[in-house]
């Protein structure tokens, strides 16, 4: 089996399998908290309702002008949450498996687990230090500025971890640590005001649930990819 087909099949199985499991967890953890937070949106300042959802959860309407489409609560909204989570799983699985091939490929589930933890650090932990998960009706800075900082932080953290682990020299390790720290020293874009009707306890529960589900996502994704990759590669030997 060619390397391309191995990457594709491993990413598809690991990503879709992980996406289905994590989507089910989302439906019983983060989604109810989002629905609860939406009840506070009517009392929020109009400029403060721009926000992002937990990865994989379906979007909904915030302009309140009645013209934008939004999924209906229930099967439609939950179905889109499952779809987005599966697509997210497949996309991140492609990235993880392709990146691991640059170092010789995953040799087992334990190695896959380490790659998954690295993904969690790069795509959840480091960006979350500056931009923690947000609920509806929470204030936020300009979305384009937040996206640029998020992408830059994830890329710098991933590159920094690669230099520390695979650099094989103290100088490259120091450069890697500098890359990891740089986005945090620059700082994430912040809103002009932190006024929000969302109870602090509700936001705290959402942050804990989002980060925990993300950790499960990356551990499962890495472990599955690491378990599957040697089996698919053996067919091409």
TrEMBL record:
Q: Which regions span the lipid bilayer? A: 7-28, 79-100, 112-129, 149-166, 171-186, 206-228
Q: Where is this region: Disordered?
A: 45-71
Q: Which InterPro entries match?
A: CbtA_put
Q: Which keywords, in A-to-Z order, does the entry hold? A: Membrane, Transmembrane, Transmembrane helix
Q: Where does the signal peptide begin and end?
A: none
Q: Name one Pfam family in it.
A: CbtA
* Bias type Basic and acidic residues, positions: 48-67
Which NCBIfam families has this protein been placed in? CbtA (TIGR02458)
Q: Kindly provide the name given to this protein in its UniProt entry.
A: Cobalt transporter, subunit CbtA
